[in-house]
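Q: I have two molecules that I believe assemble together. Could you output structure tokens for the complex as a whole instead of separate predictions?
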Amino acid sequence: MTLLEAALRAVAALAAFLVLPLLVGQAEHKVMAHMQGRLGPMYAGGFHGWAQLVADGVKFLQKEDITPRAADRWVFRLAPGVALVPYLLALALLPVHPGVAAVDVPGSLVLLLAATSVGALGTLMAGWSSANKYSLIGGLRAAAQLVSYELPLVLAVASVALAGGSLSLVGLVDAWSPWWLLWQLPGGVVFLVAAAAELQRPPFDMPVADAELVMGAWTEYTGLRFAFFLLAEYAGIVVMSVLFAVLWLGGWHGPFPDALGWLWTLAKGFVVALVVIWVRVAWPRLREDQLQRLAWLWLVPLGLFQVVLTGVGVVAGW
Amino acid sequence: MEGYLAVAAVVLAGVLLVTAAMVARRLVAPRAVTAAGRTTYESGVDPVGTGWAQSQVRYLSFAFLYVVFAVDAVYLFPWALVLRDSSLGLASLVEVLVFVGVVLLGLVHAARRGLLRWDLR
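A: Yes, here they are, computed for all two components at once.
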């Protein structure tokens, strides 16, 4: 691979990173509004407020950047970048079409999981370095939640890796068959719930809880740095949704000519993203201990069950 | 190893994105730093004490549980590559079943001791 090719791949990943999260964000604005009997943004850009998030971005850029006097200055200022950049890498690792992925490495599945875990560090850095009581409580809750839900997530993903006998996302899509829809269903449910919790999305937004913690770890952030955390959240939705589409829904497998494979991957991913948005509207926030009980008493045993089921299935030659 | 050049390029692109955005912010955003503006936010009243304080020790138990499980979960990934091996497959499956049993036993113990329940009754 030449340097030029690597640069082109990085630019492609960057383009996807700047477009897809905004699409999901705009979809959330409009879908959530209509579910609640509102219209949502209607003015920016003219047609049904399509440019609302662009306008938001410009606004964030013009806001003053404040670092509190009490904060741990450099950790505080680095945290948004630490939260954002790993999701760019995770997005770049996702294959959308046979032979089409910005980055293709043999262990892409493991690298992707590692990248998303680093992203979580950004929230922890923000929570601790702000020297704010809301931020500290939010950061602690985030730490507890992220470690608790990381585990069922990893178990569910490991089960798919077992079923496909590969650690490469491309290899797993090639190994996928419609039978997985049933065989891997428990793991799929575990993954969806755990992914929503990893992203700290409602109903798992206890660490952010705007009504009681004033945005938790993000309380002290202003302007662009705050916008980076939001962008990381929406990039996270894209990553988790497309990852679900790739691992559980077969990525580019579908009727119609093979040339439409990329459309299948993106369409499946978008439907999953809509489910993530829908869940936010439909359920109230869980209490902290309920949240932990759900992870440890339901998702972890279910994830372990799925791993055993997959292992038995593979050895029995299903 | 070739693909990792692209990994490095993507990470670099991410760092450049953050840097460029910060430079643009520096050029566009106003700066009017005041002492009041830099105080810690505490819903509009003057902050009491510092933000770094002792807090809920119960979070610690989740960290312990996680360490126990996460180190073990890592081993599942190499297992995925040997499960189809005819000489290792069945033996490794039995071993993993034993292993999952032990781990589950620990979880049940933690739950029975009330580690996962915060409301005292």
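A: One point stands out. The helical segments of chain B are 3-28, 59-74, 76-82, 89-112.
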